[in-house]
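Is 4'-deoxy-4'-aminopyridoxal-5'-phosphate placement plausible here? Inputs below.
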Amino acid sequence: MTRIIDLIGNTPLLRLDGPSQATGCEILGKAEFLNPGGSVKDRTALALVRDAQERGLLKPGGTIVEGTAGNTGIGLALVGGALGFPVTIVMPRTQSPAKKDALLAAGARVIEVDPAPYTSEHHFIHISRRLAEQTPGAFWANQFDNPANKAFHAATTGVEIWEQTGGRIDGFVASAGTGGSLAGIAQALRARKPAVTIALADPAGGALYSYYTTGELKPEGSSITEGIGVGRITGQLDGLSVERAYRIEDGEFLPILFDLVEREGLSLGGSAGVNIAGAMRLARELGPGKTIVTLLCDAGSRYANRLYNADYLRARNLPVPPWVESGAPLSA
Ligand code: PMP
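Reply from A.M.:
I modeled the complex. Tokens:
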């Protein structure tokens, strides 16, 4: 019999026709939005919980605690529920009500705290760590620095990409939230093909583009993307080198996302947009005939009120989906 957590991973690799035609390369996207919790972070959640069980850090009755407003919380709630562990998520009050609702719907207990900078002890991630320390039997998942995150991506996502391309892969591009997927997949691919090109796609507002191009962590600009664009070298990113780095503005990836919806029936989230825009940049640099893989981290429905909302986009001077723009009512 299949259990819900057996459905995590082994996602299909999709050919993205428009981006492939536009660049003369094969641009392939790993359909991580098909994981049962709806994102690539189900893998991270399973990795952190399994590893904690194996190392005796999480025993029956123990609570899983994490500071996250996003997909990792949904993944942890799902994995915790399936394996019999309650999940407590600490998040800043500033997050959209939709995020809190999604966490509650997934089965998480949610604690909202006042927003604070990462350097303050009141930052939600530090609060989550102290909560775990003070709760008997609790386990702090720590997705940013727990090595099980990257290791699981190396062992699953990276190996799957290698096998699904039959080793015919010239480049891999991804953005980074914790960096676990980028670093883990890079490790698996380089072990099998040292000449593979690994590229970072950083949203505006992230500090990694400047880090990989100048050595300095310097955030510049801002982005409407969520879950990506880090300001520090996390444990996952420690020691990672990349051959190329791109800064992707919102105005660059939004039209790519809208084209995928209209022409390929594929509705994706903003980080997937940044990833595909990065894959297209790498394709143009490497030249026609190459195979480039990226991650389709989650689906557009999670961002219906932002990425695909005309008022939200117009207020920020961003491109609006053409079918929304020209959405005249049908006359009978
Ligand atoms: N896209 C989305 C939508 C995410 O939530 C995340 C994780 N925060 C990422 C991409 C990045 O994944 P990773 O943590 O492996 O860098």
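Short version: The chain has two domains: 4-34+157-315, 40-140.
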